[in-house]
Amino acid sequence: MRRLAVALALQTTTALQTPTKKPLPLRIDGEWYDARHYAETTHAGGRWLVEYARGRDVSFLFKSIHSLNEEKARNALRKLPKIDEPRDAAPYGFALGEEPDEVEIDSPLRKELRALVRRRFGTDPDAAKATPGQWLRIGLFGALTASAWLRWLQGSVLATLVLPFAAWLLVAHTAHDATHGSLSKRPWVNYWLQFTAHPLFFNVFVWIPQHLHSHHQFTNEHDFDVDLHHFAPAALSPETPINDKFNEAWTFCWKGCLTTLGTSLLQPLRTLLDKPTPNFDVNITPVPDDVSKKQLWLSVAPTIFCLVYPLLAFGVGRGNWGLAVLESLYPFVGASLIWTAMTQTSHVQDDCHQPVAEDDCWTARQIAHSYDYSVHNPRERELVAMLTAGLNMQSLHHAIPTVAQSRLAGLYEEYAEIAARHGAAPRTSRNILTASRELLEYLFENNA
Predict the structure, then answer these.
(1) pLDDT-based confidence at 290, cuts 50/70/90?
(2) Angle, helices 132-153/157-173, rounded to nearest 10 degrees
(3) Which residues does 79 contact at the CB level (< 8 Å), separation at least 6?
């Protein structure tokens, strides 16, 4: 394991930190730019975040993540060299249509929300990073997770049962914020703490591009949000054709027990083996161009180890096949149930597919297509945020994605008042149990 970690470190550091003369094309507001020199020398989030966007349209992402320093970002953009559209350009990593709807991002709603974050944090993006309390919890949950893994290696049933919960608490405090660059002001810290999602929850090379460039820019848009298609043939959107012979909500249910095997293993393997995604003609979850197959294999190896090691150590080695199967599969099933509950309740809802009052406003769409819970009581809101990576305030996160989850609870009430004034009041449920029930009710009705 240690040699594997060192090998992965060397590969990823070399690939994502070594300067290259190859252009780094990005499209913003219809113009193509070469961001190579800026990414290597100046970009506050580090080269790796820009590298993941190579060849993509990042218009909405560029504007939404610079709420605290928009003027600086615009000035930097003006200085980037403009280039012709690359011959192999694929502006949308996932697209079933030609172009997404034209919407306004510089709307009155967004301007008022930008004023809110500036009142709270000033114009320094570092002020919106993780709080000291979040870092303390990262230390505690990191120690708990490491202890669970050590005992798992030794064949402890109790540690195996605890492992997915401990790992989630660590991931909830690190990986999601790190992928948005909102965890730490140091890019290398964000880069490495993404990998706390390995080996149980997701492969960062596969997940980040689909999460940032597809889901966060085009939330719940059938033709451009890849997240609506991971459970195919289950219809997560009213626009998805349904199977009139079988209610595919049951497909969602069984796939929901195995989601992280998909995000950690099957999705990267499709790139490695050049295979299409089931129910599609192509692989809809490719990795960034800068990630080599060798690097991707190394990133997948810990997941393979976790599946194979118990079978060899406790099955073949000790003849205890019950323990072997438990240690091999349960951590992924447990992680999958947590992952499905935490992520799908936030968008797969009937309310999230209802008309939007300000349909031409990108921020209003982001809010309307997200679902919040446990937000009405301040103490409950903050506590649940610690347990869910702040996903209980998903609409706020989508509206202002570069504020760390530990700071969202303090913004929520004023944010909700602002959104309501603009006809974009957050859509909410009482708690995660009621939200989960509503998710299943919507799925079974939508697939009927």
Answers:
(1) confident
(2) 150
(3) 38
d(CA 285, CA 362): 24
CB 397 within 8 A of CB 390: yes
Q: Six-digit token pair at 418?
A: 């602002």
What is the pTM assigned to this prediction? Answer: 0.91
Which distant-in-sequence residues (6+ apart) come within 8 Å of 317 by Cβ? none
Q: How far apart are CA 419 and CA 364, in angstroms?
A: 8
- Residue 122 pLDDT > 60, yes or no? yes
pLDDT given at position 2: 35
Give Rg (Cα) of the chain. Answer: 21
Strands 371-373 and 31-34: what pairing?
unpaired
